[in-house]
Structure formats: C-alpha cells, structure tokens
Amino acid sequence: MPARADAVLAPLPAGAPAPALALPALQGDVQAPFGRQPVLVHFFATWCAPCREELAALDRLARARPPGSPAILAIDVGEPVVRVRRFFAGKPPAFPVLIDEGRETMALWKVEVLPSTYLVDPGGRIAHVATGPVAWDDDAASRLLDALAAGRPVASTALPEAPPPPDSSSSGSEP
C-alpha cells in the first residue's frame, strides 16, 4: 500500500459535542477535561504498527509541551487490559491510557480506522479529526495545537505523516 504524503486533518460536523468518556484507565481513574482545555483523544491498538509510531510521537509531544497543553488521552480499542498493561510495561507514556475493550466508545466516536485522533476544543466540541499516523511532535502539529489552545479558528490542514514503522507492510489498520 503506498504511503500518503500527509495525514489530512479535517473538521467533523461543525460544533459536534465530544461524546462522554467513561472508561477504565491503566493509571487509575481519569476524568476527560472536556470543556476546560483542548484535548487530543487518540484511538489505537497495540497490534497496529502505525499506532505504535504515533504513540511514540504523542509521548514526545506530551513531554516537550507544558503540562496539559493540550491534555492527551489515548484509548486502546478491542484488547484486554492485561495485553495493554504488558505493552506499556517499563515505558509508561506521559498521558493517560484508557481501555475500550468492548469497542463501545470507538463506535460512539465513529472511529473507522486506527490510528484516529480527535481534537476537542476548550468548549468541549470536536474541532477536527485526523485518520492515519500523524507526526504529533512536528512543528506544524505544535502550531495547530497552540492555535486551538488560544481559541483561534483552525482551518483544515495537512499534518506531517509519521514515518513508516520498520515493518511497514501495513499502513492504516481497520479496527
């Protein structure tokens, strides 16, 4: 499958409220801070090679930016807690990881491809969605997140695609 030049960030229906998140977390209870600050909600699976690369970029982003700008929540879909816990053993990410073992939240958020990432504005509304791997630690992504945090309108834009994983036999993955 040919690699895309960019992962496209395109708005969902204007002003759609972010669906509630009520999921168990690897690190204890987590409340989604919708309505207080921008939130990046990332859907992934440990078996998805592009997801693993994007998780690494999100971890670098979280460690490089001031705490909570934006808040980052990662949601593993369709896997048992023990598998996800084993995946992160010895290398916990700098953000909470939630578990959607039954894929109910994935359906509620209308996730069709892994990885998928939703940007929720400070008003608790979905501003944009990115499908496919994004290099979230790239300067273009930081500028987009800064604009969202400042409450400035963010037009649809292309973000740099994460580099292909060492085994690039699969790009985007169907859940």
Provide a descriptive summary of the structure in words.
This protein has 175 residues and is an alpha/beta fold. The chain contains four helices and seven strands. A seven-stranded mixed sheet has the order 4-3-2-5-6-1-7. The radius of gyration is 15 Å and the shape is globular. The N terminus and C terminus are likely disordered.
Brief descriptors of the model:
175 residues; disordered N terminus; alpha/beta; 21% strand
What does the secondary structure layout of this molecule look like, with pairings?
Layout lengths: L5 E5 L28 E6 L4 H16 L6 E7 L3 H8 L8 E4 L3 H5 L7 E5 L5 E6 L7 H11 L7 E4 L15
As residue ranges, the low-confidence spans are 1-6, 168-175
Largest sheet: 7 strands, mixed
Instruction: Please give the share of residues in helix.
Output: 10-25%
> Biggest sheet: strands side by side, in what order?
4-3-2-5-6-1-7
